[in-house]
Write a structure and sequence with these properties.
Number of helices: 5
Mean pLDDT: 80
Structural class: alpha+beta
Strand content: 25-35%
Low-confidence stretches: none
Largest sheet: 6 strands, antiparallel
Order of helices and strands: HEEEEHEHEEEEEEHEEH
Length: 267
């Protein structure tokens, strides 16, 4: 008797279908990631053209479209705008928000012509609009000391020149105290019995505005200008003591004379 025929077994295709579906989904996800990344990296960078200092520019110079160096008998030193500044293309994210955006050399000449450089520019620094390193037109005569750093001169202030022996040790931006030695022969109205000579700190915390040769220019009120003129003309000698940066506190000192020296060093 023949054995009964066994029915054919059907293969289950569900597992293979799920595997294929997973592979297709992974490929699709990878394609999406590649598309997004390629789209992002291929987006053009936003750039703009700014104006930068072509080299270090010193305070006190005057920008001009046509003049260079010393002109006539004036003390002003002129710099050609075309030589002082150049253009540079940078990303918009890199440039400061107040950067001067270059349109044309004519516009740049109009913006800068006649401006005094009130504080140093360094090579590569970006020009701003407005730029605090430039003195506004009309704030002072061409070449005037008042154009170097007009923000340091307030209403009622004046610049006073103090002559020192040799090359001054201080630089613009320092603060100094004036220490003077006066003697009876120089100041005949001293009280009776006053020491023959005496040293005192006379005026404190003077801002050094500029240094030219052996002359130190300080910012003072009108009344202090008179005091300085009298002291530097009548005392036996004087010295400018440089203060530590940030030290603005009044110094408490006592006069020094021969009696003080004897008591301190010869007792």
């Amino acid at each position: 008797m023949a054995a009964p025929a066994r029915p054919m077994r059907t293969r289950s295709s569900g597992g293979r279908t799920l595997i294929l579906l997973g592979v297709l989904l992974a490929l699709a996800a990878g394609a999406i990631v590649i598309f997004v990344v390629s789209t992002y990296t291929s987006a053009p960078l936003q750039t703009e053209t700014v104006v930068v200092a072509a080299s270090d520019l010193q305070a006190g110079s005057v920008l001009s479209t046509s003049q260079s160096g010393q002109v006539g008998d004036t003390q002003a030193s002129y710099i050609l705008i075309s030589a002082a500044f150049t253009t540079k293309t940078v990303n918009t994210d890199f440039a400061p928000k107040d950067a001067y955006i270059f349109k044309s050399q004519t516009d740049l000449n109009t913006f800068l012509n006649g401006q005094s450089i009130s504080s140093n520019f360094y090579a590569g620094e970006i020009l701003r609009n407005p730029d605090p390193r430039l003195a506004a037109a009309g704030t002072g005569a061409v070449g005037s000391l008042t154009s170097i750093n007009p923000g340091q001169i307030k209403a009622g202030d004046v610049l006073v020149q103090i002559k020192v022996d040799g090359a001054p040790a201080m630089v613009p931006g320092d603060h100094v105290d004036l220490i003077a030695i006066f003697c009876n022969a120089n100041l005949p109205n001293l009280p009776s019995g006053a020491p023959p000579c005496e040293s005192q700190t006379m005026i404190q915390n003077l801002y050094v505005y500029a240094v030219r040769g052996s002359a130190v220019f300080v910012v003072v009120k009108h009344q202090d200008a008179q005091t300085l003129q009298y002291l530097t003309s009548n005392v036996a000698t004087f010295e400018l003591a440089i203060r530590k940066p940030g030290d603005t506190a009044p110094a408490t000192t006592t006069p020094v004379n021969s009696g003080t020296i004897i008591s301190e060093f010869f007792h």
